[in-house]
Design a protein that fits this description.
Number of helices: 2
Number of domains: 1
Distance between the termini: 23 Å
Helix content: 25-40%
Strand order of the largest sheet: 1-2
Oligomer: single chain
Strand content: 15-25%
Amino acid sequence: MTDLLGWFDAAGFDYTASIPTIGDREFGADMRLFDVQPAGTNWGRFSSEIEMLLSGGGDGRDGRFIMIGRRRR
């Protein structure tokens, strides 16, 4: 995740959301996918990566991880 955030920044994008979420935030119907949001702490990203590793992947089945961003203006 931290690597992806670096790539986003280098390409001129701001992080807006990810599926699964970073840290202890829960994904829900009210989540605003395209509003710039904090990318969590190093610890939050690390714990999310460990959780994905232990559950077998991003969504628990096939390892998908989606990061959403918005080009800076």
